[in-house]
């Protein structure tokens, strides 16, 4: 191997520069098996100083870098295109003490969401973002992609939790603004610019996040409704009447039937429904009565199962949360992540099957997602061969409904050709200028987010 690998070994130690194909393999493919790329080597630094030294060495050698967190991304943004150094942040796992006065904590980018949640809970607090990949998704990845998840209805996306970051530019310069004054209008907000920048501007190495009161008591309902319209009527009631609303998720008969057959789950309700909504309420006192009362008054409710104990709640959540793994166990899906204004959701869901059937007549489409934001995950099984066509048709339909072509998973490598359906030419040009200012050589995550000229 070359001088660059030797230099990287000098920075991180021999054991953390991987060049053997079998050792690199798990970093070169995403877990859905949809994105592959060969890395020149995998390098695993232990802290910000090592990340800076790695980036300086790569800059000196003129080699591009792909940044990877927990490798749970769904748009190929953390997998190399081919020939880059793969910079894994998996060893940046420092959990600093929780600042209970400020209700904040600083953690390394490689800390998993679950480890952050447990750390916050041990100090009597909680973290406001939660999602199904919690055991593997890393905090750095959550920030770099501005991850959403199932608590957006209460706390907003990841960017709303981020107080400050430490990050390294492509030339090795360290930007550290972890603990800014609570009110601070002193220029550009670089922290927020890095949220959702998908590793194209800098490598985030440490993050300071705000924490929220712990969930306390919780109640979950799985509600059968007559379709999208019913789900929206239920959402309107939930938003108007529940002071404790913490999640409102949507799935449909097709997905619930797949989840049931893969996971061998019993029927959740007395009969099958076209659509299902999972509602979670949390509060200092038991929210079950408030939830049951709202459900009793809502004419959209066909049937509902309610659980207040932890085991019962987990059973109900499984019908929604195991969609991704049940789909993955069945095949390699065309995976889209879109959102439309709520008043367009019914029309979109009605129109999608026809649009998909026109290019993939035998495909099986599974829709589920985050009802409150009109954010649907469109997974199409049996359409791999015509994936680009399906993507194109669906994203054009979404744009016609004034929606986003990537609601929470980011643009990655997968969605760059369609970025102009959601962002204007002028906006994309301004983004290119920002990219050039931070990373003039285009060395960080090339091919991610911004389309090739
Ligand atoms: C979810 O909401 C994730 O469960 C994954 O965003 C979505 O697998 C998907 O399409
Ligand atoms: Zn999601």
From TrEMBL:
Entry annotated with the keyword Oxidoreductase: yes
Q: Which cofactor does it need?
A: FAD
UniProt keyword terms in alphabetical order: FAD, Flavoprotein, Oxidoreductase
Transmembrane recorded as keyword = no
Q: Which InterPro entries match?
A: FAD-bd_oxidored_4_C, FAD-bd_PCMH, FAD-bd_PCMH-like_sf, FAD-bd_PCMH_sub1, FAD-bd_PCMH_sub2, FAD-linked_Oxase-like_C, FAD-oxidored/transferase_4, Oxid_FAD_bind_N
Where does the FAD-binding PCMH-type domain lie?
35-214
Coiled-coil segments? none
State the family named in the UniProt similarity comment for this chain.
Answer: Belongs to the FAD-binding oxidoreductase/transferase type 4 family.
Q: What is this protein called?
A: FAD-binding oxidoreductase
* Organism name: Luedemannella helvata
């Amino acid at each position: 191997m070359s001088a660059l690998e030797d230099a990287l070994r000098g920075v991180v130690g021999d054991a953390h520069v991987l060049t053997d194909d079998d050792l690199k393999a798990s970093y070169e493919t995403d877990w859905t098996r949809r994105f592959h790329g060969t890395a020149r080597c995998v390098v695993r630094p232990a802290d910000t100083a090592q990340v800076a030294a790695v980036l300086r060495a790569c800059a000196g050698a003129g080699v591009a870098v792909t940044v990877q967190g927990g490798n749970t991304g769904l748009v190929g943004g953390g997998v190399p295109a081919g020939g880059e150094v793969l910079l894994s942040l998996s060893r940046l796992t420092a959990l600093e003490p929780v600042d209970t006065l400020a209700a904040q904590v600083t953690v390394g980018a490689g800390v998993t969401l679950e480890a952050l949640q447990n750390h916050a809970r041990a100090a009597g607090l909680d973290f406001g973002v939660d999602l199904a990949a919690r055991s593997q998704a890393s905090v750095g990845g959550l920030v770099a992609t501005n991850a959403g998840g199932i608590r957006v209805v209460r706390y907003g996306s990841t960017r709303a939790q981020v107080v400050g970051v430490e990050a390294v530019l492509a030339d090795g310069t360290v930007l550290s603004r972890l603990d800014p004054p609570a009110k601070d209008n002193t220029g550009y907000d670089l922290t927020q610019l890095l949220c959702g920048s998908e590793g194209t501007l800098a490598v985030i190495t440490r993050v300071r996040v705000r924490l929220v009161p712990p969930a306390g008591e919780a109640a979950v309902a799985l509600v059968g409704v007559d379709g999208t319209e019913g789900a929206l009527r239920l959402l309107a009631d939930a938003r108007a009447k529940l002071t404790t609303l913490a999640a409102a998720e949507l799935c449909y008969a097709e997905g619930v039937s797949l989840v049931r057959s893969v996971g061998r789950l019993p029927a959740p309700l007395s009969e099958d429904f076209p659509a299902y909504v999972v509602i979670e309420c949390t509060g200092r006192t038991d929210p079950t009565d408030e939830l049951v009362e709202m459900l009793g008054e809502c004419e959209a409710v066909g049937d509902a199962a309610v659980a207040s104990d932890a085991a019962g709640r987990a059973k109900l959540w499984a019908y929604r949360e195991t969609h991704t793994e049940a789909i993955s166990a069945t095949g390699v899906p065309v995976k889209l992540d879109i959102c439309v204004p709520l008043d367009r959701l019914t029309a979109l869901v009605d129109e999608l099957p026809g649009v998909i059937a026109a290019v993939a007549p035998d495909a099986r489409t599974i829709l589920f997602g985050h009802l409150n934001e009109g954010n649907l995950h469109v997974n199409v099984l049996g359409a791999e061969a015509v994936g680009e066509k399906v993507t194109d048709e669906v994203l054009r339909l979404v744009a016609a409904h004034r929606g986003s072509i990537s609601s929470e998973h980011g643009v990655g490598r997968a969605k760059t050709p369609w970025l102009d359906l959601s962002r204007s030419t002028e906006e994309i040009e301004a983004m290119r200028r920002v990219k050039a200012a931070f990373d003039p050589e285009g060395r960080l995550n090339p091919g991610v987010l911004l389309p090739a000229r």
